[in-house]
Amino acid sequence: MEVEVTVEEVTPQVTYPLRRAVLRPDGGEVAWAGDEDPTTFHLAARTGERVVGVVRFSPAPCPWRPRTNAPWQLRGMATDPAVRGSGAGRALVVDGLARVAARGGDLVWCDARGTAAAFYERMGFTVVTEAYDKPGIGPHIGMLIALSST
């Protein structure tokens, strides 16, 4: 069921409550190095005034494609479980990839949670690693998507 979602650039602090609830429910840091970097941007998906999804994009070398000219990392993607499947996550990724491309990025990579890999594949990302464990967080898979330069 699609819902009307708006996506906007926000401060890192707007992302922290959803990061805490979805990504770090058992505790752990939700303010990460690079959050305040001027080249990093954070997006929030809203239904009305309610934040239902968040994501961060920042320039960062890709561990699997070290020779890429302008790689960016997608990190901290979280959607409210109540709206999963509604298009909020898709809207965040589509908007974020467009913003990265507009900033000259040519590749976006992420450490995807194993449970989210199918979502990223539907968004056009490719699996590039075997599953690996991120201590305290769980199984992840390296994924990436090349961006067109047009």
Give a brief outline of the structure:
The chain is an alpha+beta fold and 150 residues long.
Description of the structure:
Strands 1, 2, 3, 4, 5, 6, 7 and 8 form an 8-stranded mixed beta sheet that branches. The N and C termini lie far apart (32 Å). With 150 residues, the chain is an alpha+beta fold. The chain has one domain: Gcn5-related N-acetyltransferase (GNAT) (Aminopeptidase, 3-Layer(aba) Sandwich), CATH 3.40.630.30. Strand 2 and strand 3 form a beta hairpin. Helices cover 22% and strands 35% of the residues.
Defining traits:
150 residues; 8 strands; 22% helix
Q: What helical percentage do the residues reach?
A: 10-25%
Q: What's the domain count? A: 1
Q: Mean pLDDT, rounded to whole units?
A: 93
Poorly predicted regions are: none
Query: What is the H/E order?
Result: EHEEEHEHEEE
What is the assigned CATH homologous superfamily?
Gcn5-related N-acetyltransferase (GNAT)
Q: What shape does the CA trace take?
A: globular
Which CATH C-level class is it? Alpha Beta
How many strand segments?
8
Helix count? 3
CATH-defined topology: Aminopeptidase
Summarize the main sheet. 8 strands, mixed
| Overall radius of gyration | 14 Å
Structural class: alpha+beta
How are the elements arranged and paired?
Layout: E1 6-10, H1 12-23, E2 41-47, E3 50-59, E4 71-79, H2 88-102, E5 107-113, H3 117-122, E6 126-127, E7 132-134, E8 138-146
Parallel strand pairs: 4-5
Antiparallel strand pairs: 1-2, 2-3, 3-4, 5-8, 6-8, 7-8
